[in-house]
Amino acid sequence: MQTKLIKVNPENPDPESIKFAAGIIKAGGLVAFPTETVYGLGANALDEEAAFKIYRAKNRPQDNPLIVHICRYEELGKLVNKVPSNAQKLMKRFWPGPLTLVLEKSEVVPYSTTGGLDTVAVRMPKHPVALSLIKESGVPIAAPSANISGRPSPTNAQDVYEDLAGRVDLILDGGHCQVGVESTVLDLTGEVPVILRPGGVTREELEEVLGRVELDPGLAEGQKPKSPGQKYRHYSPKARVLVVEGPIEAQVKKISELAEKLTVQGKKVGIMATAQTRGFYNTGYVLSVGDRNAPLTISSNLFSVLRKFDRMGVEEIIAEGIPETGLGLAVMNRLRKAAGYNIIKLE
Ligand code: AMP
Ligand code: MG
Fold first, then answer.
1. Distance (Å, rounded) from C-alpha 78 to C-alpha 98?
2. What is the pTM assigned to this prediction?
3. What is the 229 CA–ligand 1 centroid distance (Å)?
């Protein structure tokens, strides 16, 4: 299949391009498009065949459910059996935005979209391109991240093209994604809301609205996560990744030592540093992922820096950990998985 690439204005996409893209969705095809989190690989969520195509294009395991994207609050009522009051509060506060709600699915949602589950994950994205595509298509759009399963999620059209050229009908290029990590997945089917995947909306923000919010214990290494997608190898560049966590000075010292050792062994080493530390390293290829005082800069660049190291031919990436507050929780969840839990914790 020939993959078409069309540039669109991220703030104000031209209606002709959106019409063309929506035509593909309506015909059961695949369109990759920008959201405020990462690029999504979209298909008609209510069309069983179309949803299957997503799994094939991504090599995604079939028990890993897809998030359904909508553009109007009322559409949620059609996709789920009941909209509980806490869901309504969350929608008011965080939609459109990077929060996905897991609720009991209604009959219209096919099992191919939910990976065989009786629940469905729904979100309303904030990106103008995503919203206008859903609206013009006239159907909810199932869209996981637009990468080959296991690779870092794509945050720009080039990253999508690298993974999915020849596998999707169209890529809408709307520039770089702002949030850079995926949505927070929140399970509302139990008594207490549970974060199945940390993401763009922070635990602290959710607690302001809901009071108590738990983290799925399955998110820890070696545990069985409740969200199917969390159990797979994920976000991994070709290079080996090691994360060094702890106080900043200790991190810099340890990473410098390791980088030197690996370089002497003839390895091409990449250091994922931050704005505050990049100047302290003398060995290896150093890239700053962002500013520790502005975590959105870090989440926004995380995946693209991992992919950049791959393009540079780096064999070993050593990354600084950041505190797990606010967006840091989502960043560290992705980074630890990218490292296959290859972590050094310093005091
Ligand atoms: P992706 O869109 O590729 O970022 O992946 C979607 C994430 O949402 C995966 O981690 C899925 O396991 C999770 N997810 C989607 N639907 C459900 C559901 N019904 N229950 C639990 N987790 C879900
Ligand atoms: Mg994904």
1. 21
2. 0.96
3. 6
